[in-house]
Amino acid sequence: MSKSVEVITDAEWEIMRVIWTQDETTSREIIDVLTDKMEWKPSTIKTLITRLVNKKYVESKKDGKHFIYSPLVSEEEMIEFETKQLFKKTCNTKVGEVLSLIVEEQELSQADIEQLSAILAEKKKKAPKTLECHCLKGQCRCHKEEAQ
Ligand SMILES: [Zn+2]
């Protein structure tokens, strides 16, 4: 995702999911979907929508007395961005561990597992035996062990 790197909060993500699903929506519709689940006041939801507009994740268009909201970034783009952010915070040598944990904890369909198996089989052909750590000294235990 090129246009913005502003962090999105969990609360804002809940709003985005409604906007992604509806494509074009009003604050009324967002409030209807989220009030029960989140126990938020309508004013809280409106504040969150405004933040998303300010962060340029959502476009607002005036339609008579109401505003129509639509997404400026797709759900796929955001998920990819968030995933990359997660792995940026992780040492190269620990990525496999993190992925294993995710795979182990998530529910997967037969089709998902087939796709993952195919990707892994392809990767296995070219994967190095070990990975190098590119972390900053003092931010990763890899270097600590090096020094000993
Ligand atoms: Zn490292």
UniProtKB/TrEMBL annotation:
Gene3D superfamilies hit by this protein: Penicillinase repressor domain, Winged helix-like DNA-binding domain superfamily/Winged helix DNA-binding domain
GO BP terms, alphabetized: negative regulation of DNA-templated transcription
Keyword Transcription regulation included in the entry's annotation: yes
Keyword DNA-binding in record: yes
A Pfam family annotated for this UniProt entry: Penicillinase_R
Keywords: DNA-binding, Transcription, Transcription regulation
GO function term, MF aspect, one: DNA binding
Family: Belongs to the BlaI transcriptional regulatory family.
Name of the protein described by the UniProt record: CopY/TcrY family copper transport repressor
